[in-house]
User: Which sequence fits this backbone?
């Protein structure tokens, strides 16, 4: 920090002022520029190092080459903005050092990836490098002159582009974020060098007939696209659903979007005839919004599939999405408030526009709405339903995510119809995310840990139904890639009662699963209730288990349970081998209640139960030889040996408690009873009561999702008539 | 929230303005006043409820009576500040309701305390009630007139005062925070009613000769003070060390200080002849500072002994300490910055002075220094050593606390020479604190949980040496009350090398324990190193085990370990029955290294080990039938079957990592080797190296703590000479 300040002072004293004086820029742009100058000057002073590649992610040579691509890119941008030739010289000299050494580097010595790089342990990082370094090269291309151009083009960039494409087709030709990086890298350097062969290769991929038919990557994803297409335009057409949803989920979309946006902008500028920004009805803009709308109220991306938690709207990588989204797609003023929180802008026209309009006070609050995303290139392979309800005078947001998407390729998890729940303080019901510490060398070199496959991907690690202690699709990606759930109903308008529902007929052969979840915002409750209905229909008896991965510390149950004197794994496979059984109990009444505390708030889940049901309290950590798993608690509602059954529960968040004043407010939930009144092929009717004697009945049409259909259902002699998928009746205490 | 806003609007519209208009007050005072008015008006509108006592803490009647004392006190203060008689009427009518019902309430029906109350389940809460209600009564005493005075005095307040004193001597006559509340309650109401008998009883207690000799409270603390004294003046003389340290620790001091300050101020006003503010060289002011200086860099109080974590400098209860400390004891401008963070002031002259001076811009940063507190009324019963070092240009604080205090009475833990470590993000090496959820009904009615005694108090739950798997003083408070460790050395000046050291000869009969810990702030390290030395000398061989309760997730070790296929408790008693053994390994080299990650930072502990040493990875949670224990990890360095031995380690905090950018900085520690070069009766010499080949030698005089003594020690033919307890030598790589 002191060093940084010193440098800043030196810069000012020495009169190293940018061509356009920083003060003429709006504050956020000026601040980003000044910060970047300090960083780049620091690196320039330190000397540019180009070490022989050796280390895995997190190791020295990895981190130096990574820092280099960032410094080169920033120096290029500074040259463009300030005209100061010292920056151009720095870029040129750095690139010449790379040119000098690149040819002497065979494959990276680690040899631990399905596509080993030359600068890094994996081609993916080589492609990252080339994308960013292409920007730097573009900024100084004219300035370096033809001799240097020729040297760099032939000794460094064309070889690097060939290495990442024709020499590694298993990396280049997938429909996958890795390949998007590869396509963009090859295309962007092609545009800089005016190398049409590379640009064509980037846009259209290597033809299928030049590839081995059964080639697979190490995630078992297929190299050959089903359509026989590859390259950047195919990525645009096949990577996203028509509404912009990215099949791998937001964690990977955040990563994948960079090359899309960077190559997209470069193409828009240098190949305007391709109309890439307008391509597929502006798919890049939709993808930007899909990213920004897949974050919890705190700003963290929903950790669906293989996601490291904590990646956020406010991550440096998302600055570009916000700024380009604003600049290229409609100047949505609510994006400005994200930019303000990001505290940075891109050092280009887009960032300048954002900073200018922010300074002009144009920002409006970012207040995402409920959204049903579709999956698959045609939007017909399931999807992701996000319900958002606002409480406490609109200040507090609750977000529920139900996942009924396609497999999500190699990074997909086996968690059909799973759900997770969030509020402004973070996770309430968690998705485990990935078992991985990205870039942390000590944890398997920063790659996916073995427990990612054996636990994090398995069904039981998620909040979804597990039948016979086997994962969905038998935990086989080849089966998973064939099928997907179907969206059933979505009511995301209004703030009082919202619904998301989907079905899966293939997670378990011979069983039809259907889940419906509601957020109910009613004055009787502090925060929106989650009402959960899970129907399973089969013809062969099996154990049905529904886990709830709650965050926090258990406070109470309304049934007895016994803790285990020694902790044993709950099973041998399908993720159960990683679960310690801590305690178990059999609820005796019709309703099982479990209460816990987290982050200053109380939660109570009230479940309709049947005789024979058992609640198992579990915790990951078994068969975990390197302490890779988090010890977060869960409980499993187990219903043994049934053919068909329906689970129903209500989750209430209530009251508050702070150790600073030690005053609990409403520490007990108000729901007293949850019952299934009707449960047949056509309908399920739920009922729940609260302590004040109010009663709610929620009627659900399980077999007909036509929103215009009329229904009638008689319960206790009372006939209810309604139109559409669901109907809520409130019966007041006075009645 | 909406309701609150509505009320505020109504207040303004109806012209219910305070006598002195809020805007003439400085902002923080005006804001506190306005907030209080909104709260009190809300309660006035809602109607005053005086329910028949029935519930435990957290239950309805408990919370209502608790809210009542607060509302009455606030309404009294509002009457005094605004002159609005509606507030006085509200207080009068509320008190009359209590008078009407109090006589009909026998003991609280729960009967679960050593001193059951009448309004609450324990006398303690009845005393809280009387302290605050006395303030309200004082504010309206003259206004209500003689008839109401007579009625309230005879029907409510004198009976309540007698109940809390002569009817419950086991509650009233201890030297304990419970009794301070009782003394203050009886004395404050005595001052209001001008009842000299009550005032004398409050000041001097019930004479010992009127008490049964062996009477004990349920914490096994003695009722009779050793000195035969009781009452408020005895509390002032015996509760604190001469420097203000409170033997139970800051969590209880925060609680105990309220009656001290409230009764103290009332006495200063109405019995100035007693000179209570000046009593014992201003002991109340020293106690205030002792409280404010026993908080971690985040502001949370160190959780020594029975403490619920999260109680903080910024808790509502601490507002009074800050404001009275400022107003009554020297107007220390650094207290103003705590007040600014508290966002509230007391509604009296003290709060007004704070708010006025804050508004005048007089606040300076609160930057606590290292401090060696003494324990015991005479300051000769051990103490608490707090080292604070500032790094990152003075912005970041690291705080190390070593506990060598007396038993701390009934709330004391058996953790002699234990330590804990904190930075601005919170705990790095934790003290478990109490097993208790204060006021949370679901958790044992909010009282201490069984695991508090069987785990939280035991030695193994702390970062201190455990010999033979037995707790210090054999876990017996009667032994613990007899002994205490001795301070050995404290060097808290300067920021580069600080030392705290203490000895204990009585934790284990026949064994002499000595610990020395340093914070070393050196340019080679990101943050201050913790250097730890633990010497144990005995004549009978026993297993020596040193736990480290680190916060975070294990990243690496430099030795192999094996995880357990099933988890069993590590022992049968002394807290070991609550520990699951997760894994164990025997380091093979001379140095064992364990690395972990927490809160965005990396930590590496490097320990000198010997053949036969074992590291056991443990986690609480065994024999925990109600999920009362937190599942935080720890490791135990076990050295079996030795008579005398010395443990040495270096803990380094380094680098950073955020999931937002996924860039690890310095994920590996730089310490390569920790060795004990000399270890005899007089000296221990440590040596540690870093990756750049630098070497440090730290020489410690273990048997002579005279700061003026000259020492010499020869190591590898090199003779070092120094004066005082310790000497650090740095040997540069070039040498």
Assistant:
């Amino acid at each position: 920090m002191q060093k940084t300040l010193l440098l800043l002072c030196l810069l000012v004293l020495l009169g190293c002022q940018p061509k356009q004086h920083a003060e003429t820029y709006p504050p956020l742009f000026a601040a980003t520029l000044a910060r970047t100058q300090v960083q780049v000057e620091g690196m320039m002073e330190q000397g540019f190092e180009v070490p022989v590649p050796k280390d895995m992610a997190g190791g020295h040579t990895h981190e130096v080459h990574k820092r280099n691509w960032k410094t080169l890119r920033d120096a290029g941008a500074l040259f463009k903005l300030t005209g100061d030739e010292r920056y151009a010289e720095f870029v040129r000299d750095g690139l010449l050092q790379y040119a000098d050494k690149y040819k002497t580097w065979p494959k990276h010595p680690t040899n631990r990836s399905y596509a080993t790089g030359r600068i890094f342990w994996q081609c993916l990082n080589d492609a990252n490098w080339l994308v960013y370094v292409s920007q730097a090269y573009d900024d100084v291309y004219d300035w370096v002159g033809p001799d240097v151009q020729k040297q760099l083009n032939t000794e460094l960039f064309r070889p690097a582009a060939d290495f990442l494409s024709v020499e590694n087709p298993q990396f280049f030709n997938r429909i996958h974020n890795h390949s998007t990086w590869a396509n963009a890298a090859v295309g962007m350097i092609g545009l800089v060098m005016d190398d049409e062969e590379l640009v064509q290769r980037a846009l259209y991929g290597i033809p299928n007939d030049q590839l081995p038919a059964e080639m697979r990557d190490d995630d078992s994803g297929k190299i050959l696209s089903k359509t026989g297409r590859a390259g950047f335009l195919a990525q645009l057409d096949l990577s996203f659903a028509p509404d912009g949803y990215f099949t791998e989920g937001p964690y990977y979309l955040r990563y994948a979007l960079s090359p899309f946006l960077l190559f997209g902008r470069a193409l828009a500028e240098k190949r305007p005839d391709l109309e890439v920004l307008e391509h597929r009805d502006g798919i890049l803009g939709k993808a930007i919004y899909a990213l920004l709308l897949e974050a919890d109220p705190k700003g963290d991306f929903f950790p669906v599939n293989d996601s490291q938690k904590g990646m956020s709207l406010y991550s440096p990588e998302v600055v570009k999405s916000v700024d380009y989204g604003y600049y290229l797609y409609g100047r949505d003023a609510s994006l400005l408030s994200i930019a303000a929180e990001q505290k940075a802008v891109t050092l280009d026209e887009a960032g300048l526009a954002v900073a200018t309009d922010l300074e002009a006070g144009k920002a409006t609050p970012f207040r995402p709405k409920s959204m049903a995303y579709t999956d698959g290139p045609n939007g017909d392979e399931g999807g992701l339903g996000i319900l958002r309800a606002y409480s406490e005078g609109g200040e507090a947001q609750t977000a529920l995510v139900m996942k009924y998407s396609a497999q999500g390729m190699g990074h997909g998890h086996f968690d059909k119809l799973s759900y997770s729940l969030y509020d402004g303080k973070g996770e309430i019901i968690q998705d485990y995310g990935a078992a991985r510490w990205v870039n942390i060398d000590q944890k398997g070199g920063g790659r996916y840990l073995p427990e990612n496959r054996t636990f994090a991907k398995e069904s039981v690690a998620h909040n979804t139904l597990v039948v016979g202690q086997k994962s969905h699709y038998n935990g086989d990606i080849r089966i998973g890639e064939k099928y997907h759930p179907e969206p059933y109903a979505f009511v995301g308008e209004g703030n009082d009662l919202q619904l998301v529902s989907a079905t899966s007929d293939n997670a378990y052969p011979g069983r039809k699963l259907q889940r419906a979840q509601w957020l109910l915002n009613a004055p009787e409750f502090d925060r929106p209730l989650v009402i959960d209905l899970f129907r399973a229909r089969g013809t062969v008896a099996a154990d049905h288990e529904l886990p709830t991965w709650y965050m926090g510390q258990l406070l109470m149950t309304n049934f007895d349970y016994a803790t285990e004197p020694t902790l044993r794994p709950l099973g041998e496979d399908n993720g159960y081998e990683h679960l310690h059984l801590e305690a178990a109990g059999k609820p005796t009444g019709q309703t099982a209640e479990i209460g816990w505390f987290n982050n200053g708030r109380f939660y109570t889940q009230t479940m309709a139960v049947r005789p024979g049901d058992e609640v198992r309290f579990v915790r990951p950590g078994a068969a975990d030889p390197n302490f890779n798993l988090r010890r977060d608690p869960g409980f499993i509602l187990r219903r043994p040996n049934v053919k068909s059954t329906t689970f129903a529960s209500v989750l209430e968040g209530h009251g508050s408690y702070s150790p600073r004043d030690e005053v609990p407010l409403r520490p007990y939930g108000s729901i007293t009873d949850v019952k299934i009144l009707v449960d047949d092929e056509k309908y399920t009717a739920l009922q729940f009561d609260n302590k004040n004697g109010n009663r709610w009945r929620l009627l659900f049409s399980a077999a007909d999702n036509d929103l215009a259909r009329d229904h009638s259902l008689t319960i206790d002699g009372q006939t209810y008539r309604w139109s559409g998928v669901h109907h809520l009746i409130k019966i007041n205490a006075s009645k």
In short: Confidence is low (pLDDT under 50) at residues 1-20 of chain A. The domain at 374-731 of chain A is CATH 2.70.98.70 (Beta-galactosidase; Chain A, domain 5). The first strand of chain A starts at residue 371 and ends at 374.
